[in-house]
Design a protein that fits this description.
Layout (H helix, E strand, L loop, with lengths): L9 E12 L2 H9 L7 H14 L1 H4 L10 E9 L3 E12 L4 H19 L7 E11 L6 E2 L4
Antiparallel strand pairs: 1-3, 1-4, 2-3, 4-5
Helix pairs in contact: 2-4
Length: 145
């Protein structure tokens, strides 16, 4: 791991996204609550939060962090996609971009896992950091796409 001993403790926050593309009828099933496995958004939200908390176990050399907040929001986008936005916060010596990216990615993978029996053609796209606040490098905002 990178030595962060001499870095100041500051408020840090990161937002990341992932997009899951699917057939319109798959999205309709999710949004209407008609999936036989239950509430897809609720399960994906919990999976994303749990993943953020375990990022250091999943990504080599990632610092274990004491996150103060993790939020995972899921919403239908158009007729064929789910947008996932994960927000992680802490006061610490290192950033939380990896935690936000992990949360968004695992939420997306959870949607894929729950829906793969009805739609094997789903894709996971646009996994990226949207914004980073705090720390030595300051503010980062991704370009709109």
């Amino acid at each position: 791991m990178v030595d962060v001993t001499d870095k100041a403790v500051t408020s840090r926050e990161a937002l990341a996204q992932a997009v899951v593309r699917m057939r319109p009828e798959t999205l309709d099933m999710i949004v209407s609550g008609g999936h036989p496995k239950g509430d897809v958004f609720a399960v994906a939200r919990i999976a994303g939060i749990q993943a953020a908390k375990k990022t250091s176990d999943l990504i080599p050399l990632c610092h274990p962090l004491m996150l103060t907040s993790v939020k995972v929001e899921l919403s239908a986008q158009g007729s064929d996609a789910v947008l996932i936005v994960a927000r992680c916060k802490l006061s610490g010596q290192t950033g939380v971009e990896m935690e936000a990216l992990t949360a968004a990615s695992v939420a997306a993978l959870t949607i894929y896992d729950m829906c793969k029996a009805v739609d094997r053609g789903m894709t996971i796209e646009s996994v990226r950091v949207l914004e980073k606040l705090g720390g030595k490098s300051g503010h980062f905002q991704a370009d709109a796409t």
